[in-house]
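Methods — Computational structure assignment.
A single polypeptide chain was analysed. Its primary sequence is given first, followed by the predicted tertiary structure written as structure tokens.
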Amino acid sequence: MATHTERWPAGTPCWFEITVGDLARSQEFYAAVLGWEFEDSGPEYGHYVNALVGGRRVAGISPPIEGGEDWPKVWTTYLATDDLEATAEAAAAAGAQTVMEPMDVAAFGRIGLWVDSGGAAFGAWEARAHTGYDAHNEHGAVCWVDLVTSDLDAAKAFYATTFGLTYDDLSVAGIGYATFTPPGSEWPAGGMGDQQDGDVLGPRWCVTFEVDDVDSARQRVLEHGGSAPNPPWDFEFGRIATVHGPDGEEFSLMKPAPTDDFSGRD
């Protein structure tokens, strides 16, 4: 287990949040599946909830928003930035569509939302008091994030332009995949891969949470109102299963291989 309380380097996935249809139902689900505790930010912030592991932030959950019934029920990935205006300009120049113009979130930080040139939604976060997630390398915390894209080369070019990411190609047997590393970092912060045949969800960012046991966590998903269309599977870095929460939101559960944290975060 590890704790990170400083700002994440620019280009690093630093926060993950979802707007849900029933806050109490989602809290019960994620408490059962991932062991989360919750901190309500109060009425002045619309009762936005920080999910916690051992008292440290891991993700955010927003209750239903009046007039936002059609807002997609998906986990949104935010990449860190040191200059939100510069990121907004770079994203626009690279072909992004603006969903939310840069704005202040009190003393916590500054936020913006876009759809990238390939159709995947993402956010950027310029941290102030809220530096992003604090806990990693333990049960209930984010351990990896991937971009699923229909054009890997175009996606790599977009995020290189917008965030300065660099890549290591790990493609195999005609399946394109690359890890990405933020400027100045020594270790990859996530990956990007080709959308596979039969994947009807479209381009998107996908979040993976670490668990102590994938099979038992998947069973808890089923017992508490989620779904799990496919069985877990093993790969070089551990065991993983993709599941869906009570609003149909996609996420993955992973038990990393015992080597250690493959992303190299500290």
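Note: The first helix runs from residue 23 to 34.
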